[in-house]
Every structure is written in C-alpha cells, then in structure tokens.
Amino acid sequence: MLKSLRIRFLILLLSVSIIAAAAAFLLRELMIKDFKEYMEGELEDRVYWVTADLEAMYEKHGGWAEGFVSEDVIWAMMIGLEIRVLDVDGSLIMDTKKALGSLSPLIKKRVVPVSEFRSAGARSSGFVPYPLFLRGKEIGRIEVKFLRPVKEDLFVERSNRFLILSMSGLGGIAILLSIVFSRRLTTPLKRLAAAAESISKGDLGERVEVSGDDELSSLTRAFNAMAEALEVQESLRKRIISNAAHELRTPLGAIRGELEGMIDGLIPVDRKQLQSLHEEIGRLGNILAGVEELSQAEACVLSLNREHIDMNAFLKNIFERFRKLFLDKGISAELQCDDELRLNADPDRLSQVIVNLLDNALKATGENGYIRLKAAQGEHHVTIEVEDSGCGIEEKDLPFIFERFYRSSGGGLGLGLTIVREIVEAHGGKIEVRSEPGRGSVFTVYLPS
Q1: For residue 84, which of 64, 60, 62 has the smallest C-alpha distance?
Q2: Fewest 10 Å CB contacts: which of 170, 181, 330, 333?
C-alpha cells in the first residue's frame, strides 16, 4: 500500500509537471505565432518603404543610377532582406550582395555577418517581385528574398530546446520532490502500520513517536491515544475477569459445600439451609447485576427517566428504609434537607446513588458512630452529602475509589462507587469525597438544579 501511495504521489507530481509543460508549450506557440505575424508585418512595411524610396530616387535622378544604395535599402539589409533592383527590361540595376563593397566599414561590420548568416541558412523560397511605378508608369521592379524566417527558425529551435531542457529539469525536480516528500509522508505511515501490526498481535504497549504539529502528527497522537485506551480496556478486562472470578468463587464455594454436605447427609435439608443457599444465590445475582450495570454505564446506554422530585419526601423514604439497620448497630442517624427542595432527576437512579452511599457508610461505621444525610440548594446545583464517622479511607486509596474494579483494603468487588459516579455524571453532575482514616468520610454529590 505504501509503495502504491508513493507511486501515486509521483504520478500526481508528474501530472502537474506535464500539465504545466503543456500550458507552457501552448503559450510558447501563441507567442511565436504572434511574433511571426509581427515580423512579417514589419518586413512588409520595410519593403514598401524601400519601393517608395527607390521610386523617389528614380524621379530625382531621372533614371536609375548605377551602384546606388539608399538608406532604406541598408536598413532592409540589416533586418534580413536580400534585394535586387531591375529595370523594365529586366536588367540588374542593384544587388544588395554586390552593394556590400560600397558600404562604410562600420555599416559593413553590422550588415555582413547578418547577410552571410542568412544566405548560408536561408530557405530556397525564391525572390518575391514588387513592381515600381512613377506617375502610373512602370519603371522597373524589385525582387525581395525574406531571410527573416531563418532567424525565426533559430528562435523556435532555441525555444524548443529551452522548453525541453526546462521540462526535463522540471520532471527531474518532480521526481526528486516526490521521493523526498513521499518518504516524509510514508515513513510515519510505515511506523503507524508497524505499530498497528504489533497491537494486533497483542503488544498493546506499542507507541509511535510524535514529532511536529501537522496532520500526520495529529493522526499519530490519535493512534497513541487509541492504543492507550485499548491497553486500559485490556487491563480492565483482565481485572474484571480476575475480580469477578474471585467474587464468584466465594458464594459458589459456599453453595457447593452446602450441597455436598446435604448429599453426604452431613447437613440437614431444612428451611435454614435452603435460606442460606438462597442468600448465596442472591449474592451471585448481585455481583452479575453489578457487572451488567457497569457495562451499560460505560457503554453510555444508561437510560434516565427524569421527574420533578420532592427531595424532602424522597430522602425521608430512603432514610426510613435504613432506620432499623442504624438502630440495630447503635448508630446515630440524622437527615437534613432544605424546605421545598426539588430536583429534576431519575428517581430510581438517584435512589441507587443514595442507597449505595448510605450502605457504604453503614458498613464503615461502628457502634455509637453517626451517619448524616444532607441535601441543600446551591446557586446552580443541588448538593447531596453523606457523612459518616466510620473507619475512613486510606490516602493511597482515595484517588482510585471510583475506578472500575478497584479493591481497597476493605475488599469488595469495587463496582458500587463506579456505578454511582456513572449515574451522577449521566445526570450532568459530579461526585467528590473527603476522608481521613479513623475519622470518617464525606461523599458530596453535585447535581444541576
């Protein structure tokens, strides 16, 4: 593919060069055509000047003066006209070639090389006759050979040579540039291709060095970000397998042990044992439900059915469900909520958040401790706070407690707080925590009002 890209790049540059050459050739042809037309017009004008001058000289001298050379004839010679003057009988009166000897050295120096050059290379197009008249009577004629086309051919030849050399040079430059730029283009692509192949083989730690700030650099950064995300996801996948296997092993082991005891007759098959099995199966279901819910949250498919919630009644209902648990453990519990506090949120998801935080607080708080649930209206948000006097969270664990499958020293699958964060963020809010070991924790949820 990269070779094909390099070839395409070369073809592109060569195509541009060919188009430029064609445009230059067309422009050159138009210029040469205009130049020829201009020169032909100039030569025709010079011929008429010469005929007028010769007719005037004939009238002045009363006939042809042998060996004369007029000023216009000299100029005609200098611009490339070979002229012969003949009388009415066809006798040669003047020939520019023979007249060179009567010219001054300065003029001869200018005319001779031109004449010799043109005579040597002139095409055999012959002389063109132009009659001479005086008062309506023919007095002779001049015969003109146009030697200018020789120089025009030279001009065209030089133009062609210049165009060929220019296009050859341009083609060479195009090839050189295509090699240089295609190498600059394909080298990082080769690195990306090699890195992609390594990642496809399982080496998720492969990265590509980024240099510059162009589109390829942006592509490389995006590739590295993708590779990093894949590495993180692979790490999480391994962690979920490991943690889920660890968490499932305990209830499965308990169920298996109890069933084997029942089969062997060591454990009686009664209501108590069946209730124990039911609880273990429920624990398995909770673990699987947590994994499923987290996968939905991470796939951004959490559905929210928002309603206007009366927070006083809502929190009081949740708090009452925990009251017996608080009393059984000797925990002092308190609920504080602003009057007429309302929030637009999904009641089931919000209940899941608060229940999870209260359940964690209950587990962390010992006898004679306290748990406080507060809700208040802020400037642009509603604040929900769960505070406890429990064991607190180690400082090393704080940055990671919301991470997926993070297991603190307290154990657990590590799904609850991750799901809490996903639900809060799905509502457009955020969650924060403050904690000190031995002094308790404060979880604060901010939801847009």
Answers
A1: 64
A2: 330
State the CATH class of domain 307-448: alpha beta
Dihedral sign from CA coordinates of 51, 55, 61, 63: positive
Q: How many other β-carbons are positioned within 10 Å of the β-carbon of residue 106? A: 8
What CATH fold (topology level) applies to the domain 215-301? Helix Hairpins (1.10.287)
CA distance 185 to 193: 13
Task: Give me the sheet containing 332-337, strands edge to edge.
Answer: 332-337, 370-377, 381-388, 440-448, 430-436
Q: Where are the domains of the chain?
A: 5-152, 215-301, 307-448
**C-alpha 370: how far from its chain's center?**
58
| CATH fold for domain 5-152 | Beta-Lactamase (3.30.450)
pTM given for the model: 0.45
Q: Is the separation of the CB atoms in 441 and 390 below 8 Å?
A: yes
pLDDT in tens, 33-53: 787 777 677 777 777 877 887
Tokens of 83: 């002229």
Contact at 8 Å (CB) between 309 and 342?
Answer: yes
Strand 332-337 with 370-377, pairing: parallel
Sort residue 405 into left (φ over 0), alpha (ψ -120 to 50) or beta: left
Question: Both tokens of residue 111?
Answer: 């005319």
pLDDT in tens, 366-411: 888 999 999 999 888 999 999 999 888 888 888 878 776 565 554 4
